[in-house]
Write a structure and sequence with these properties.
This protein is an all-alpha fold and about 200 residues long. The chain has two domains: about 25-115, RNA polymerase sigma factor, region 2, helix turn helix motif (Rna Polymerase Sigma Factor, Chain: A, Orthogonal Bundle), CATH 1.10.1740; about 140-200, Winged helix-like DNA-binding domain superfamily/Winged helix DNA-binding domain (Arc Repressor Mutant, subunit A). The protein is built from nine helices and no strands. It has helices at about 1-30, 35-55, 60-70, 75, 85-115, 130-145, 150-160, 165-175, 175-200. Helix 2 (about 35-55) crosses helix 5 (about 85-115).
Length: about 200
């Protein structure tokens, strides 16, 4: 039993090395334009990229479009990948770079939905007052997020919604940690102001 305990750190290190080697091999195949490698990357990281895109855009259709764009551009983008971060982190960075157009279309779609007073859930809520209040807050937050510059919005979502560290966000966005903290500060300030203006 003691022998197994002594070997555990070694076994975990070997497993991590194998995982890193497999990812490096996958990235190399992506650089060479191997279609099977794109499929592997998609199978492995689609859920994470899609979840981030949904949090960033606040809209399912725009999130799906953004995720599609990320994987379509992956073979070309892989040429720039230097291995300083994980492939998943690199893919989130590609999503941020492609986000501007998708954020605009998500905002337009939300605006149209509100004008037409369409409700996504037709079932009767269990507590109508609470559900109406929660829906109104979600709409107000989405409208406020729509007014943030893309860089601030991405920083807010990565730090506050996905709860990533400033260091990881700096890797994804390709900016210093101090810039991440500054963007987050300004994003929070602007969101607070916008929400106060919209709250009766």
């Amino acid at each position: 039993m003691r022998t197994i305990a002594l070997l555990m750190p070694f076994l975990f290190t070997r497993g991590a090395e194998r995982t890193q080697d497999a990812e490096e091999a996958l990235v190399e195949r992506l650089r060479q334009g191997d279609p099977a490698a794109i499929g592997e990357a998609y199978d492995k990281h689609y859920e994470a990229v899609r979840a981030f895109a949904r949090r960033l855009t606040g809209d399912d259709a725009s999130a799906e479009d953004l995720t599609h764009d990320v994987f379509v551009s992956l073979p070309q983008a892989a040429q720039r990948f230097r291995g300083g971060s994980s492939l998943k982190t690199f893919l989130i960075g590609i999503a941020v770079n492609h986000a501007r157009h998708h954020l605009r279309s998500a905002a337009r779609r939300r605006s149209a939905m509100e004008r037409l007073a369409l409700e996504p859930d037709e079932e009767k809520p269990t507590n109508p007052e609470r559900e109406v209040g929660r829906a109104a807050l979600a709409r107000a937050l989405n409208r406020a997020l729509d007014e943030l510059p893309t860089a601030q919005r991405a920083t807010f979502v990565l730090c506050e919604v996905e709860e990533r560290s400033a260091r990881e966000v700096s890797e994804i966005l390709g900016v210093p940690e101090a810039t991440v903290r500054t963007r987050l500060f300004h994003a929070k300030q602007k969101l607070r102001t916008l929400l106060e203006e919209r709250t009766p």
